[in-house]
Structure formats: C-alpha cells, structure tokens
Task: structure prediction
Amino acid sequence: MKQVEVGIIMGSSSDAPIMRQAIEVLKKFDIGYEFSVVSAHRSPQRMFDYAASAEGRGLKIIIAGAGGAAHLPGMVAAITTLPVVGVPIKSSNSLDGWDSLLSIVQMPGDIPVATVGVNGAKNAGLLAVQIPATHNAELRAQLAQMKKENNDKVTKMNETLEQF
Amino acid sequence: MKQVEVGIIMGSSSDAPIMRQAIEVLKKFDIGYEFSVVSAHRSPQRMFDYAASAEGRGLKIIIAGAGGAAHLPGMVAAITTLPVVGVPIKSSNSLDGWDSLLSIVQMPGDIPVATVGVNGAKNAGLLAVQIPATHNAELRAQLAQMKKENNDKVTKMNETLEQF
Amino acid sequence: MKQVEVGIIMGSSSDAPIMRQAIEVLKKFDIGYEFSVVSAHRSPQRMFDYAASAEGRGLKIIIAGAGGAAHLPGMVAAITTLPVVGVPIKSSNSLDGWDSLLSIVQMPGDIPVATVGVNGAKNAGLLAVQIPATHNAELRAQLAQMKKENNDKVTKMNETLEQF
Amino acid sequence: MKQVEVGIIMGSSSDAPIMRQAIEVLKKFDIGYEFSVVSAHRSPQRMFDYAASAEGRGLKIIIAGAGGAAHLPGMVAAITTLPVVGVPIKSSNSLDGWDSLLSIVQMPGDIPVATVGVNGAKNAGLLAVQIPATHNAELRAQLAQMKKENNDKVTKMNETLEQF
Amino acid sequence: MKQVEVGIIMGSSSDAPIMRQAIEVLKKFDIGYEFSVVSAHRSPQRMFDYAASAEGRGLKIIIAGAGGAAHLPGMVAAITTLPVVGVPIKSSNSLDGWDSLLSIVQMPGDIPVATVGVNGAKNAGLLAVQIPATHNAELRAQLAQMKKENNDKVTKMNETLEQF
Amino acid sequence: MKQVEVGIIMGSSSDAPIMRQAIEVLKKFDIGYEFSVVSAHRSPQRMFDYAASAEGRGLKIIIAGAGGAAHLPGMVAAITTLPVVGVPIKSSNSLDGWDSLLSIVQMPGDIPVATVGVNGAKNAGLLAVQIPATHNAELRAQLAQMKKENNDKVTKMNETLEQF
Amino acid sequence: MKQVEVGIIMGSSSDAPIMRQAIEVLKKFDIGYEFSVVSAHRSPQRMFDYAASAEGRGLKIIIAGAGGAAHLPGMVAAITTLPVVGVPIKSSNSLDGWDSLLSIVQMPGDIPVATVGVNGAKNAGLLAVQIPATHNAELRAQLAQMKKENNDKVTKMNETLEQF
Amino acid sequence: MKQVEVGIIMGSSSDAPIMRQAIEVLKKFDIGYEFSVVSAHRSPQRMFDYAASAEGRGLKIIIAGAGGAAHLPGMVAAITTLPVVGVPIKSSNSLDGWDSLLSIVQMPGDIPVATVGVNGAKNAGLLAVQIPATHNAELRAQLAQMKKENNDKVTKMNETLEQF
Result:
C-alpha cells in the first residue's frame, strides 16, 4: 500500500470541489494522499492534533484550503514544521476571495505558508509534487514531461484556432 | 484584590502601544484585567491553553489584537465560549490594515469575533465595559456619564473654535 | 411571557432574510427578542427614539443590520450605552459589501460597534448569546454544547467525504 | 449684518484645517456662513437639533465633513430637506480615506448627499456658491470670472514652465 | 409650457434605464427637464456645446451619468458654472463601479461635481429638487412631505413584518 | 530646427517633475517635443484647441499626464486621432494613484488611451520612441542598443552585489 | 498578399472571444494581422521566439492579452523593441480583472506596455491603427471618419431616445 | 565546499535589503545558496538561461523577489520544474505592494509559485529550509528547535511586558 505523503485538508466539505483539483494532480503523479475536513474554527482540537501528529504519521506536506477569515493554513503552519501550502477559497461568505487571500498569504515572519492563487488547488497539488521531486529524479522527469504537454496544448490550440 | 474579568492579549509586544488604549478604558471603569502576549503563530499551545482556561479562570471577555494575517482573535473565539473582541492592528508588515481587518472580521458562521476598527483598541475596551454593564446599573450610569462628557467635549471644541 | 432582551433592527425589510439568521440563534437559545425596521435615513426620529428608549425598555443588546452607507449601527451606538452589534449587509446598492463593512466597523474612538462579517447575522445572534452568558452558567453550558455539535459536524463531514 | 446661508459642520475640530478651505471660498464670494463642530457620534442630539432647525434658521445649504465611518453628512441629510454637501476626510483613523468616501457617497435612494472628493472642502464651498447662483446672476458672473482666472493660471504656468 | 430647468445627460443610451430614475423624481416634483445622450468621448464637440450653452438656454442644473473612465460629469463641470450632479454608472465595461465612482468624485479643487452613489440617479434627481427648493417654499414643503412618506413606509414595513 | 513630433502635456505644473522623465527619454533619442500645461478642467478650451490642432501642427503622438479624476488623456484622445499615451500621476489629492489609474485606463471602446503605470512617464517617453521606430530602422537600432544597456546594468549590479 | 503588420497573441484560446474584437478593427482598416496563442507560462520558448523574431518577420506592433497574473505583454515587451499593447482579460481565474490590470500596467521603467482597459481589445486594435497612421495620411483620414461615425451614433441615439 | 541548493534572485539590486532576509535564514540552517540579480524585464535571456540551467546546476529551489508588475517568479516557474518561491516586494514604483502580490500569486493552473507575504523574504528562506527538511531529519529537528525558540520569545516578551 502506498505511503501517504500529502495531507489535504479544508475548512468545510463545501470546499471539496475546489480541493479535489489537488487530488487529481497527486493521483496523476502517483503520490499518496489523504483528504479530510479539518476546521480551525469548528474543530480546533482536531486541527491541533492533525498538525501536531502530521510529521510523526509520515506526512511530508500539508495542503490546506479555506475561505473568508481563512485561518487553517496559517494555524497548521504554526504547529507543524512541514511545509504548508495554502489555498484561498472564494467561498460564498467571502469578499470575492480577497479576505481568503490576505488572511492566508500575509503571515508574519517565522511561519511561512506557501500560498497559491484564489481557488488554485491544482497548483497546490503541483507544489506537492515539486517538493518531493527535489530529491526524486523520476518525479522531475514526469514534471518535465508535463511541461512538454502544456507546451503541446498551446500548439494544439493554435492548430484549431480559427483565423476569422 | 480585584477580580480579573478581561483578558487582553496581542500577537506581539510591538502591538502594546495600541492595545494599552484598551487598558486605559478598563482602568477608568475600574474593571480588572490582565495583559499578555499570546501569539497564535509563535505560541500556539499557549494560545490554546489561554483560550481553553479563560472561562475557568474567571475571565468574562477576551480582547485580542493582531496584524497582517491576524488569526489570534478568531482562533481564541474557536476555543472559548466567551465573547472575543478583535482589534485589527495596522502593523508594519500589514497591507495598511486591510489584511488585519479582513482576517479578523470575516469569520464563518458559528464563531463570532466582535470586531472594532483598525487600531480601535479604545473601543475594544469600551465593549468590555458595555458587556458587564448589561447587568450592572452602576457601570451603565458611568457609561452614560462618559457619553455626557463626550458631548461636553464637542461643546468645548465649539467654544474655542476660531470662526476665521 | 419572555422578557425581550435583544432588539434586532435593520434599515429595510429587504434585509430581513439575512437578519432572520440572528433570530434563529436567539430562538435556539431561548432568548427574548423583538424584530423591526428602523431606518436611520428614512425614519431618523424612530431610530433616535428606539435607541434612547432601549435601555429603559429592558433591552440588553441591539443588533443592527444595514447596507451601503450603513449608518444605523453607529448612530444607535451613539445614542445608547447598550452594546451594539453591527451586521454589514451586501445589499443590491452596495459595492459588494465593502461600503457596508467600512461604514460600520470604522467607528471613531468612544463609540464602539461590535462588527461581524458581511451578512454575518448568525454570528451577531451568537454574540447576543455570549454577552448574557458571561453571567449565566446555563447559557455558557449551551454554548459549549453548540461548540461540541460544531465539532461533531466536522466528524460527520469526514464520515461522508468521498475519498475520490 | 450678513445672512448666514451656509452651515459648515464637521465631526471634530481636528477636521478644521481641511474644512476651512470651504470658508475661504464662501468669504471670497461674500456668502454668509457659520462654522461649528457637530459630531453625529459624540453629540447626536446636537446633530439632530442642528439638522432639524437648519431650514428654520434660514440656512440654505449644509456642508458636512467627517472621516472614518463618516455618518454626519448622511444623518443630517436624513433630517433636513436642505441640500447637504459631504466632504470625506482622510483622518488619522481612516483607511486612507476609502472608508470616509464610501460611508458618505453610498447613500440609499431618497436621501442624497452631494459628495466631493477626499479632503475636497474647497469644492464643497464652491457647490455652496453654485447653488444660490442658480437664481443669482451676479454670483454666476463671479463664478464665470473665477473660471477665467483658473484658465489664466494655466497660461501663467506655461509662461514660467522651463522647457528643460 | 414648462421651463426646462434640469438637463439630464448620459454617455450612452445604455445608461438610460438607470438615468430614468432621475426623471421619475423630477416628474413627481413637476420640474422641467430634458434628457439626452451626450458622450464626452464620442461627441466631444456636442458635450462642449451642451455645457457652454446650458446656462444661456435657461438650465439651472445638469445631471450627468457615465461609467468606466467617466469623464462626462467632470468635463461639463469644467465648462459650465452651473452645479453638476454626477452619477457613477456600474456599466458592463466598468470594474464593478469603482472606476466610475473614482473618476467622477475625485475632481481637483475649483471644479466640483456633486457625486451620488453608484447607480444613484434617484438621488441625483432629488438634489435637482433640493437646489431650487432653497428658494422655493412650496418645493421645500413637498420635500418635507416626501420625508414624511419615507417615514410612513418604515411604519408600513413594520406592520407587515413577520415576527417569525 | 528639429520638427516637434511629441506633445507632452499635463494638468498642472506640479506634475512637471514626473513628466520630465518623458522628456529625458525623448532628448536621448533626439526626438522633437513640446512641453506645456493643458488642464482639461481649468482650461477646457485650450485642451480642446490643443487636441484639435495637434495633427495639423505636425505632432505624431501626445503624452498626457494627470492625477485624481484624470480626464486629460481621455479627452484629448476623444478629439484627436493621434495616439495618446496616458500617465496616471500619484498626486497629493489622489487616492494613492488608484483614481488616476482607473480614470485613465478604463476608457470605453473606440477611444483608446495607451496607459502606462502610475508615475510611469519614462515609459510614456519610450512608447513615443517605439511608435516612430516602427518605420525608422535607426531608432529601432537605438532601442535595441538601449535594451543591451539595460542588460548590461544587470550584469554590473551582479558584479557589485555583496554576497553577504 | 497583405503584409502582416500586427501580431495578436493571447495566453489561452479561451481569451479568443475578447481578442477577436481587435481583429475586427484591423479588418475594418485593412491592416494585416496574425492571430495565435502564445502562453508565457505554458510555452515560454514559443513566447521568447515569437517576441525575438517579431521585428525580423516584419511585424510592427504586438497586441497581447492575458488574465490573472498576466505576464505575456510585459515579457514580450522585455524581448522586442516593437510597441506592445497589453489587454487585461477578466478571466474566470482572475480577481475580477484587478490582477490582470495591475500585472500588465505596472511595468518598471524602460519596458513600456501600452495598456488598455479590462477586456479592451477593441481599443488595442485601434491603437494598432493609430500607430501606423502617424505616417499614413489615408489611415488618419479613416480614423477621422470613424470619429465622425461615433459622433453620428450619438445623434442617432438621441433621435430614438424616448423622452418618457 | 558547500553545495549550492537555493538560488535567490531579484529583479533589481534595490530589492537586496529585503531579499537578504532569506539569506540570513539559509545561513542559520547552513544551506548553500547563491544570490544574484536576474531581471525578467531587463535581462530576459539571463532569466531564461538561469531558470533553464537551474536544475542541471544542482539547485533544488529558487526564491525570486520582484515588485510592481512582478513577472520574475512566474516566468522562472514557467521554465524550470523546481519549486519557485515568490516574494512580492513593496518597491517605490508599486501600488503599496498590491500589484506585486497579485502579479505573483495569481498564477494560472499548471505553473505554481509558492507565494509569501509582501516583503516576506524571511518566510521564503524558511520554505527553502522546510522543503529539503521533508527528507532530512536533522533539518526537521532544527526547525522544531526554531519553533521552540519562537515560543520562548513570547515567554520573554511576557516577562518584560509592563502591566501598566
């Protein structure tokens, strides 16, 4: 059975449609993950326990998504020494994502959160591939291959682009 | 010795000059307080313990100030059932206070933070008077007296205002 | 008959769908309330009278919701010594709620408004429970129970979360 | 003695340096004015009385300046039928003037405030000239003369502009 | 035939649905108006001629609505000495109305535009009533009556408000 | 004598320190220019005449800088068919440049203004070189040389950068 | 066969509906263009090659549209000496266009991007006409004709505008 | 000699005072780094070469700081498969850091940039420690020790905090 290396958490199951974009990336690169709801505000003890036990349970990276006054990524980063990737969610109760973004990215010195764009869970997943890839040549090769495919998509787009 | 009813906390001692404005109000109304640094990010366990023990230690209200990605008020509110008053601080690493304000006020349903204006520690202190005043006629009389004095200040301003 | 302790007011009946979220909380905690339209702009005398008479009529807390250039919470706070909870409404004529939020939260020193997030009437209701709970052990127990239920909801979400 | 036609009010005497720019305009056009501090928040009854008595006392126009959660112009407009000109002040406790501007300009339908730019008291003074000028040919001639002088200033600027 | 006293102009006929709210007010108060498209950008000469001839044609007030980089109100104010009321329109090509608002309200000293809220054409119409009302007791009485009706609407809202 | 090809205008002589950065570029590339104050708001007729006569006087490009509710670039673009480059100025009466930027860049369809960054007069000057360079190989060579020099500056920076 | 003078590029084919508005302008003025997808992020080498070869291939102007963290216009401008017109796109992953606008317009000194409004591809097309028109009297005549037609549209709008 | 694992780059040597904060962290954790100016706009080929060669030269992580329309982090991320940490700089030509932040964090799907707060180079340095720490127990122990020291600092602050 595959080792779980990435913990994907979010403040509410309503964030799942966005956060699943990170899962898709991890599956493509065959990296073990776990996926759960961990609310800093509704389940602070669970959040605390999750963050405090993460390293011991073998996790390498935590991806945390939240909206509005989004405290989950920063609080997890306060507790664990693992790299935490923060995903600002443009939820229904957020001010178009501005609150989510600022309350995740503007962390004080000493407690980093690697923040991606609003609703950018796909990129959070990719960071969770790039990090182990720093010491894994095969993953690096796969990432290089993905870059090539991205480039090919541009070529395809041009082949089908109507010139008007 | 006076019972400590209000816990005033802040993310860093650099927030003290602002937060002391709350103390001045509490002293004026002769309400017992304690004042300490409790960083959600640098001392998460202390924050957790502070919030979890607050009610048991006899606190009635917590005033929490923080800047940037300001998680302290919201996290304390997640743990305690006491009313939490949040003070957004315009600290040097904040985006002119916008990040502090949004990451305090935009809390999700079920976990309120009573937010005051940016650097509004004086008003936080006053909320911590108004709350016990709801069942304390003497405090209400003092608050009414303060309103009268505020009005008198306007009268004074007009007496000395140069008409040009 | 139950004593009315919380006055819930709003600038227009179009704000009612949001403001009723505060009522639901108060009903759950069995706290007496009254609910009415009090416009600072269309009925300034009514607003004045409402605020000036609130304490005498036995109210303990006022929850005021308004949108756009939202003056109701701050004006009521200028007149009464009761704690005022402000709810910024994202109404059709507001700039996505930014105007509502800023014109409620940015009160000058001496006149606090305990502001919740945009459309955050549920949290306003909870503050109106937390305030009497500071001297009511039963209410505190109920609030603790609610926190437990919030935590249970997270557990439930995890039980039904599809792992993909 | 000259009839007082314009009431200039502000939330605090600290707003006076800005608001005096309106006075300078009115003096230049020889229009009677009065100048006072009327705080919606610290002296609500004075504000109420001021607005309610303004028409009876012969005022034609009210210029009101305020900063932060600036409620003075809108509340005065709620009470009087006179035209109210609002001046958003970028005060020390404001968010760079954004809160002042939005809480003055975003008034609901039925209660207009004629808003000028941030710290734009000079233009407020000019509106208080343009309004009586609608039925006063001499004032219109003076305004036309001022426009000519503005144009002449541009000519002067060009005469002294170093071409490098 | 009624004298035309208010010129209502807008940058495009697509702004008409908003701007007609000003007309409804003027009709209610029986004030003569004219309504036309005058684009500062597409018809600068027409704009110039309109503004330059307005006073001579007997207009007393100009209401100008525009969206995006909204130059119409400010340019008309640059040319005429009549009071100009600016209506920021949240048009499809605007940044949610922020650009419209700022490019109308932030006029330099010497050239005022009396700005109302975003899409606030109704209030623009009311300013165009309040201005002649400064020397017309009957209009003032009608405005006072309207204030009374506004207040009655609040009473009505309360009579039909479901208490839950 | 050198043909004047670029007209550099600004709303006030206080904008000159910024706008001279455009002049320095034009001098370096030996392109003829003229420099003057043309205020859309204080000298609308001069603005009109300037824009209407520009092509006839042999100008090829107009660079216009303005702050606050910045109408100069857009109005000139409304009148002339020459390309107009707009420079948003962060003047003392502007909201940190946001108003200047939005009121210049957000032009409606059919009337373009080529906008540069806030206070970006240097880049405005460069656009006024790039445009004639489209049909002038020598200018293109000079621009290529400048790019080389820019690159060399980076090399220099690295040679002197302390490694710590 | 017509010489291609304008290169229109965009970060993704999803930007095509907006960018085609530039094509329509160029077709109307009979200016040769090419249209393709060139992503700075997905195809950086293609972007590099496109920009580096543009001048040699006879292009005179490049129009580049992009959304979110929009780097395409600025990077192309870094590589070529041709004038680059930037079109901020309000794409689904952008913060209502604010990120697109700021990351295009706020270029550092020495590397200009002529920025148009959000989704302003039509105006980008017009700049690509105005630039060659600086040395082409026929194009200038066509542009003057277009201005006349714009003015006629305003006249038409007025002929059909219902007076209410 | 120590292996260089982290490449720290910035758009200009004026960003060095901020970016050196990352160096201080790396020195403390004894991680090899290199430090240089690589401007996406002034030295695009150098940027391209730097990014393309980074992996081959043994770099594991790139930290890139830039201000205004900040394209450096995103362009490097487009070219390399290494994780890129972006530092938004509040430079003199930026809109208070908003442009820097948005043009770094709002990257499209497939090309992540791990963004830290405005001027947050210290946290960028820490991410560059946390990433190798995912497979280095000693580094993890050092990070845990740093967390302990952060907590101790809070204890110290409390020991010296004047209670008033």
Notes: The first strand of chain C starts at residue 4 and ends at 10. Chain C has one domain: 4-136. The interface with chain E takes residues 12-13, 16, 20, 23, 27, 34-39, 42-43, 45-46, 68-69, 93, 95-96 of chain C (CB under 8 Å). Residues 137-160 of chain C form the longest helix (24 residues).
